[in-house]
Amino acid sequence: MSHTFKGGVHPNYNKAPEIPVSVITPPAQVVIPMAQHIGAPCKPLVSVGDYVTMGQKIGENPAPVSAPVHASVSGKVVAVEPRPHPLGDMIMAVVIENDYQDTPCTDLAPLTEEQLRDPEAILERMREAGVVGMGGAMFPTAFKIRGGIGKVDTLIINGAECEPYLNGDHLTMLNFPEQLLKGIELVRIASHVEKAYYGIEKNKQDAIDLLNSLDPAKYGIEIVPEEVKYPQGGEKLQIKAVTGREVKPGQLPAGVGCNVVSTRTAYAIYQACYEGKPVIERIVTVAGSAMKAPVNALTRVGTPFGYLAEQCGGFVKTPRKIVLGGPMMGICATSFDAPTVKGTAGVLFFTEKEDKTVKDPHCLRCGKCISVCPMNLEPVFMYMYYSKHDFAGMEKFHITECIECGSCSYNCPARMPLTHAFKTAKLMFQAKAAAEKAKAEAAAAAKEAKQ
Ligand code: SF4
Ligand code: SF4
Questions:
Q1: Of 94, 329, 381, 448, whose CB is crowded by the most CB atoms within 10 A?
Q2: Structure confidence by residue, pLDDT tens digits, 251-285
């Protein structure tokens, strides 16, 4: 069986896993946003003047879809106020003045041997340690796994890391292979499944060989080498490549019996359960033509982008764009003061060299966007209806099924802003649905008031 999918592109990968991980000195002040996950934002648990230890829980929300946040350094809380967030806007954050002591918090003890076999204890620890989808989705992992119990028979660990530039997953495989396998085993136990499949692109053959040398079957894991093609790491495409199952439009992975968890998330689960360590740091690839050289930086959560760039050697040119994640699916940040969060796999500082924007582009009707869409969509028509704000047309061409992978934009010779348009269109659909819901609720309330 060929482990891949239809469509996709082969961008210039610009990866540098041969660069060893550098440990970044944490900044004098870390800024810990209360929203680092999909779901209810946390409420601060600390006040200005409080002393906090490294790993202490400083924000939480009891809502089921949420994940607590923890201090990434020890020191004094100097502000609890809205600060620039990597996704834009000002979001409530706890600012800690670093005392450079890294005084550890001992609230989370490593799980006992018995607890390491107990799905409920593992899930509870995932939640308490603030584990979220660290491939970028930032969905609370305990909630995701719990929701799949009884429906999911196949666990897939995503080791594609197909986005250009990013190396954190590959380096985690090479530097912590046994810990990673143990982390995957924990996800497997918590998911109540017999076997996990670890899909890894073949451009990480060294990691595939290393993991295979450690007898993954002993942990209930099979390594699945995958073709190197972007966006192999897309959730639906991983499922297709590993199992051959198709996730239909509107369907969730659990609908075809699958759950997909990222490499870095599995490693975070290992740290949470075996070491009692919450999510307070991760490997962040810092690169792009504005940087002197690429760096794979072990970075504390809450490190401002400007400080991170400085610690990684600084700029050779003034950056024009800060991209969070990879260049294909990443989002643009607007402030050097915004900090890294749990889902930050890369911070790319780009100059005009990478800016492919064309003023007033015109479609050539070449169909090259259609040939690469991994979701079998027709971007040229989606864009046409988007331009007219024609909801019926956009719906007809399934615009909401777009996974925003960027393959169509990458392959478009006219440089049409396709993916950007589809992201906006999806937001338009969300806004329309919210407005319709509000209208229906208002009408129902008015009717009830009349009676
Ligand atoms: S239409 Fe969406 S899913 Fe298809 S290639 Fe473009 S961005 Fe990717
Ligand atoms: S690839 Fe670009 S130019 Fe070609 S049909 Fe698609 S949108 Fe038009």
A1: 94
A2: 889 999 999 999 999 999 999 999 999 999 999 99
Distance 415 CA to ligand 2 centre (A): 8
Percentage helix, strand, coil for the chain under 3-state DSSP, each rounded to 5: 35, 20, 45
Q: Closest ligand to 364 CA? A: 2
User: What is the chain's Cα-based Rg?
Assistant: 22
Q: Does residue 239 belong to any structural domain of this protein?
A: yes
pLDDT at 353: 83
380 pocket-lining for ligand 2 (C-beta < 6 Å)? yes
182 domain residue, yes or no: yes
Domain total in the chain: 2
Residue-wise pLDDT tens digits, 63-73? 999 999 999 99
Say how far apart CA 168 and CA 17 lie, in whole Å. Answer: 8
Residue 67 lies in a domain: no
Q: Which residues pair with 96 in a beta bridge?
A: 30, 77
For the entire predicted model, the pTM comes to 0.93
412 lines ligand 2 (CB under 6 A): yes
Lateral strand order in the sheet of 69-70: 43-44, 57-60, 69-70
Q: Choose one of 377, 400, 418 to mutate for the ligand 1 pocket test, by most ligand atoms within 8 angstroms of C-beta.
A: 377
User: 368 CB under 6 A from ligand 2?
Assistant: yes
Query: And the tokens for 359?
Result: 């003023």
